[in-house]
Amino acid sequence: MTTTALPPFWVVIPAAGIGSRMRADRPKQYLQLAGRSILEHTLDCFLDHPQLKGLVLCLAADDPFWPALPGASDPRIQRVDGGGERADSVLNGLLHLRELGAQEGDWVLVHDAARPNLARTDLDLLLAELANDPVGGLLAVPARDTLKRAGADGRVQETVDRSVIWQAYTPQMFHFAALHRALADALVAGVAVTDEASALEWAGLSPRLIEGRADNLKITRPEDLEWLRQRWVLKT
Ligand SMILES: Nc1ccn([C@@H]2O[C@H](COP(=O)(O)OP(=O)(O)OP(=O)(O)O)[C@@H](O)[C@H]2O)c(=O)n1
Ligand SMILES: C[C@](O)(CO)[C@H](O)COP(=O)(O)O
Questions:
Q1: CB of 112 closer than 6 A to ligand 2?
Q2: Residue 86, ligand 2, Cβ within 6 A
Q3: Does the domain at residues 9-135+170-235 carry the CATH identifier 3.40.640.10?
Q4: Interatomic CA distance for residues 205 and 203, integer angstroms
């Protein structure tokens, strides 16, 4: 890690998804992990950070679960409505950040509600490594397994060179104006952007990859939550 002082930053947490792949009785961010919701664990990764300027939480407009949580009235959390896709939710969050006073060059970190296991060391690594970067970047993990390209018949076509393949994680950290412009333009152009870096790439920029911990995983399927529940027992 570099010795640069950590820069001030804003946070946007997209939490308006329905978690269809979890097949649970509620959106996955409200499932329990060690006695609290996944979303509360995720918020805790940021709320007491000394460099945090403000946090915007993007929720489904008709979300009945958030008001029931103990932290729902926490004044440090600004709630906004999400949108149809993750990128729409993030864009709404950015629009609200502007109302809160975010300036063009301010750093914004976007982090999935469904990644509750972000280590403070990884967060600070990202902030330190990118503090003076002209573009910004993201936490990511190098591919670990041998990779295969599949054909439509489900048979291997070829083995892919994994040395250049990374998995994109969050947080993703970009300057407010650049991220807002790239995301808004990409959505208008109908480009599918599944993360913030995709929007910046589409705008012709090259985000930096910062190697993070693999256990900052996104809870996507039931086995991800099972794995994290077992890990939490060991942690506490
Ligand atoms: N319209 C949407 C869709 C997703 N998200 C958020 O984006 C993050 C990552 O998305 P994903 O894991 O795909 O979550 P879901 O869309 O909820 O899951 P699924 O695709 O299985 O339905 C999650 O924190 C999710 O709540 C969001 O804010 N707004
Ligand atoms: C942003 C993200 O977490 C990067 O890996 C991911 O793309 C979001 O989830 P989705 O499954 O693509 O909606």
A1: yes
A2: yes
A3: no
A4: 6
